[in-house]
Amino acid sequence: MNALNIINAMTVDVEDYFHVSAFEGTISRDDWSTLACRVEGNTHRILDLFDENNTTATFFVLGWVAERYPTLVRSIVERGHELASHGFSHVRVTMQTPDKFRNDITRTKQLLEDLAGVRVVGYRAPSYSIGTSNLWALDELSQAGYEYSSSIYPIKHDIYGMPDAPRHAFYPNGSRGILEVPITTLEIAGRRLPCGGGGFFRLYPYRFSKWAFSRVNINERVPGIFYFHPWEIDPDQPRQTGISLKTRCRHYLHLDRMVSRLQHLLKDFQWSTMADVFLYRVNNGEGKSAGTGAQHAA
Question: What residue numbers bound the domain in which 215 lies?
Fold first, then answer.
């Protein structure tokens, strides 16, 4: 547990192995419904892991998954977690027009709320695909009734990233419209190092991730965000052929070590939902003493 007892936000992007952007040129969307889905079982394993560690989290769920596994969506809420939107079918925002994006975020929000009977106020773009070229998407989210977004990764990356974005939660236009909460990075000697989860968490030794997250909490006195996907705890998932070495390494590296590292992470830090940690903290100017995972009824 860190020295300041800061509560961080634990998040899960609920998508299956075949949804990832890196497989767009390998797996056709038309084939998704014919593939062996593993997201339901993997997400239940995560729910059990969180129960064992008294952890509440935010689950950013794809509408595609929600339609097929409505009981999973309800289980997330019934077990005390926050339900949020990951868009409908994992189409990057950079590949959508404003009209298509508006339809996507409205459709997904309504579906999730209807299934679970709670308000959905959070959104995360597929592959962190909101950046300099499409900040209009944040206005669309605000108009659609979302209160926060976690869609910007303030680093330079070949698929995503907005390296000049603020590193901590901010209101994009200086307004009180929608709050953007970037994924956690650590800045050392002017260089930003990703330490908020995903493939980087599997690449780095756990002791580095623990040190980096602690630095953010203790030195900067702010909460961080951690994210991962259900397929990252599944070393037995179907292996794809015809992909580049870089993609193979990014997707499959150390899947067998992920659960063990997560168990350490859950014990070494305090966790709650995005809404508990950031909406409360920003609006009231103080940290929340404990995360309840509660979500208001729709």
Answer: 7-284
